[in-house]
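Chain A, query sequence.
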Amino acid sequence: MIEGFNELEEKINETNQLIDDVTNAAKEQDSKMRFIGDIVDRLDSYTQENTQIAQKTNQIAIETNQIASEVVNNVEKNNFEGKEL
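Chain A, predicted structure.
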């Protein structure tokens, strides 16, 4: 009977160790998932920032093109020495 209790105690200890291992693995997985979530959030923030910069750059390009067109139009309206060259 003592041998049976010893074997039962050993099985209980093994089960407890397995439970501890699963618990630790779950905690580690949770930590890594949070880390990945933080990285995804940062990437999303960078993507939004890049989109805003691209939109501003596009607007500047449009405005620069309009200014250049106005300059060309003004030059074409005026006569000056060397224009025909």
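The mean pLDDT is 93. The longest helix spans residues 2-77.
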